[in-house]
Amino acid sequence: MNHAHHAHHDDHDIATMLTRDYWEDRYRSSDAIWSGNPNAQLVIHAADLAPGDALDVGSGEGADAIWLAERGWRVTGMDISAVALDRAAQRAALAGQDIADRIAWRQANLLSWDPAEPPSSLAAYDLVSAQYMHLPRDILQSVHRRLAACVRPGGTMLIVGHHPSDLQTSMGRPNVPDMFYTAEDVAATLDPADWQVTVADAPGRSASDPDGRTITIRDAVLTAIRRR
Question: What is the pTM of this model?
Answer without folding.
Answer: 0.91
